[in-house]
Amino acid sequence: GENVEQHPSTLSVQEGDSAVIKCTYSDSASNYFPWYKQELGKGPQLIIDIRSNVGEKKDQRIAVTLNKTAKHFSLHITETQPEDSAVYFCAAKLRSGTASKLTFGTGTRLQVTL
Amino acid sequence: DGGITQSPKYLFRKEGQNVTLSCEQNLNHDAMYWYRQDPGQGLRLIYYSQIVNDFQKGDIAEGYSVSREKKESFPLTVTSAQKNPTAFYLCASSPLPYNEQFFGPGTRLTVL
Question: Which range among A1-5, A76-80, B80-84 has the greatest average pLDDT?
């Protein structure tokens, strides 16, 4: 089955700096890669996603890049703000178009300091 | 106001008791999912359902049961056979073509 590894487990940046979180996946058949933001005591919120036929996607201050050859994808947050502090999860999905599972990474706790 | 609701937010049960967690969505999504989250770990899939009256086991289905009698509802029962039931339980739903999954607020279950 699919395995997703996520690094780092914790990340502290100063307000205004950039943050990068990296994930690798094991199954080359995975073709959908979402990123979620989870605040304490709440459910994960989908913030951005990318499909395997796209190399990069950007939405305001966040962007995701995908390297299919190396089987890794990354989340980039620019101009970080205190409200970006949360736990971020990457995930990978096999068989786009069917109700199959997402395989999640173990999460990155991002802290944005003033 | 559309969304996914889970109730209750906090649930306490004695060891050996079955307990049912509620999940309702008014988004008209076809697929629904149950995940379990433990501290320091990612989410793990318990069960999922693509259509009414049909569901499939996920990676950690042992000790859990589900039903899907209505499109809007996907309740999860944590049975006494689940050896370590204390966790944060998350319900999600997904529209066609089943890529994006949207999560509810979660239920924190504590078994005493």
Answer: A76-80
Q: What residues of chain B lie within 8 A of the CB of A34, using their CB? A: 99-101
The residue of B24, B52, B99 whose CB has the most chain A CBs within 10 angstroms, and thus the best one to mutate to test that interface, is B99
Interface contact A4-B31, CB threshold 8 A? no
pLDDT digits (tens, 9 = 90+) for A96-114: 566 677 899 999 999 999 9
Per-residue pLDDT of A85-99, as tens digits, reads 999 999 999 865 666
Q: Which residue's entry shows tokens 């989410």?
A: B43
- Other Cβ atoms less than 10 A from the Cβ of B37: the count is 21
Burial B48-79 (b: 16+ CB within 10 A, else e): bbbeeeebeebeebeebbbbbeeebebbbebe
